């Protein structure tokens, strides 16, 4: 069937657009705030199969578990730093068989200023890891609602060539 993706921390929809450009046609975008999404995404023009849910990751996880027939994802993309335990929980709970999770994971338990990108399978095995993925360096943003955006998806960190330099195959 059509590949299904979960975009956690979708913000202004940049990562959602990236997923669409990479062939995902059923995308659930989730963010704790509607502000960036509403300011940058015209929901009337969204392609069928793309939806937005306002929730934090714990609330989304609870609703996923509570669903009568939860439909797992082929890809879970996490757009904010998480610790290893949460990465493992997301992978084991949200992924379909053969699915993968891509997330910036703390290199030390609850140390928020040193992450690396990790690609994990449903069992939680790390398929590869690296500190940067093209120009998409992992940068912690403590307050994603602040007007001075400092997160990894913010334009000043992405640069105009970010879509052409994104490297998901590892080094």
What features would you describe in this structure?
This protein is of the alpha/beta class. Helices cover 25% and strands 29% of the residues. The chain has six helices and nine strands; from the N terminus they run βαβαβαβαβββββαα. The chain has helices at residues 14-21, 35-40, 57-66, 84-94, 155-158, 162-165, and strands at 4-8, 26-31, 50-54, 73-78, 95-106, 115-121, 126-130, 132-133, 136-137. It has a seven-stranded mixed beta sheet. Strand 1 (4-8), helix 1 (14-21) and strand 2 (26-31) form a beta-alpha-beta unit. The longest helix is centred in the middle third of the chain and has 11 residues, at 84-94. The protein is globular. The termini are far apart. Residues 139-147, 149-153, 155-163 and 166-171 have low confidence and may be disordered.
Keywords:
two-stranded antiparallel ribbon, alpha/beta, seven-stranded mixed beta sheet, 6 helices, 171 residues
How would you briefly describe this protein structure?
The protein is an alpha/beta fold. 25% of the residues lie in helices and 29% in strands. It has a seven-stranded mixed beta sheet. A two-stranded antiparallel sheet has the order 8-9.
């Amino acid at each position: 069937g059509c590949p299904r993706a979960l975009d956690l921390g979708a913000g202004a929809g940049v990562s959602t657009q990236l997923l669409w450009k990479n062939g995902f046609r059923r995308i659930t975008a989730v963010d704790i705030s509607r502000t960036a999404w509403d300011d940058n995404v015209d929901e009337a023009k969204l392609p069928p199969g793309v939806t937005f849910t306002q929730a934090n990751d714990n609330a989304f996880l609870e609703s996923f578990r509570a669903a009568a027939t939860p439909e797992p994802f082929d890809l879970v993309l996490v757009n904010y730093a998480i610790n290893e335990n949460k990465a493992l929980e997301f992978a084991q709970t949200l992924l379909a068989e053969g699915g993968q999770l891509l997330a910036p994971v703390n290199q030390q338990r609850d140390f928020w200023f040193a992450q690396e990108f990790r690609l994990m399978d449903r069992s939680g095995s790390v398929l590869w890891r690296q500190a940067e993925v093209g120009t998409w360096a992992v940068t912690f943003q403590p307050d994603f609602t602040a007007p001075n955006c400092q997160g990894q998806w913010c334009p000043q960190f992405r640069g105009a060539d970010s879509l052409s330099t994104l490297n998901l195959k590892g080094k």
